[in-house]
Amino acid sequence: MKVAQGCVAVAALMLFAGASGAQELLTNGGLDSPGAGLVIDDWTIDYFKTFTGPSTDGVTLEPWADRLGDAGEFGAFFKAFQGNNTTGDLANVSITQDVAATAGVAYTLSGWARGEDNYSGLIPSTATETLLAIDFDDDGDATNGVLSTVVTDLVAAGLNNDWLQYDVSGVAPAGTTVARARVSMLNAYNNPDGGGQAFIVDDLSLTGVPEPAALGLLALGIVAGLSGRRRAA
Ligand SMILES: [Ca+2]
Ligand SMILES: [Ca+2]
Ligand SMILES: [Ca+2]
Questions:
Q1: The organism sits in which domain of life (predicted)?
Q2: Which residue has the higher pLDDT, 2 or 178?
Q3: Could you tell me the residue range of the domain that residue 31 belongs to?
């Protein structure tokens, strides 16, 4: 009897653990396919320069940028050196992936990153921004605006020449249908000092956990909105 009860308890714990273990929402968060170069499977690359506009080769997959150095695997090399701080033609690169999302769910994006010592994002008073972000949107189009954004500034969070894990979290607002995982290097430029100046990223992960408090607030907001509308009418 005691053994059976113990088994039930263990089974219940396992079920609980399974239910609370957040599911990975990204595809190819490891940035490991299809191979070195300009294409990152399942991710969208947005690269433009301030004046000369859309461009290519702002970010590529490289074997030396793989965090754990697994054979045949890759990480993303963001090319700050493509920008020019003298002319002001700065490099702006984002990689994004859209996943279906639900209002009231708390999403967390994590990822590993390194900035080499002469990366333009690490120059004091630089214009370069280095961001891990989630954009909450009501469609698959970032160019027509988003509902809200949560951002972690990686330099403020301690970016340096060692692999460190960073994260950013936020609750999807009302109307959300898409959570857009994003890594951005904005206003980047070639460091005249030369030397190692890569910004590299690997092993991204996006998970969502329903937020009871947020759901409660959302419900309150809907009630308030309804009563407001009633009053107005
Ligand atoms: Ca990788
Ligand atoms: Ca790896
Ligand atoms: Ca949009």
A1: Bacteria
A2: 178
A3: 23-207
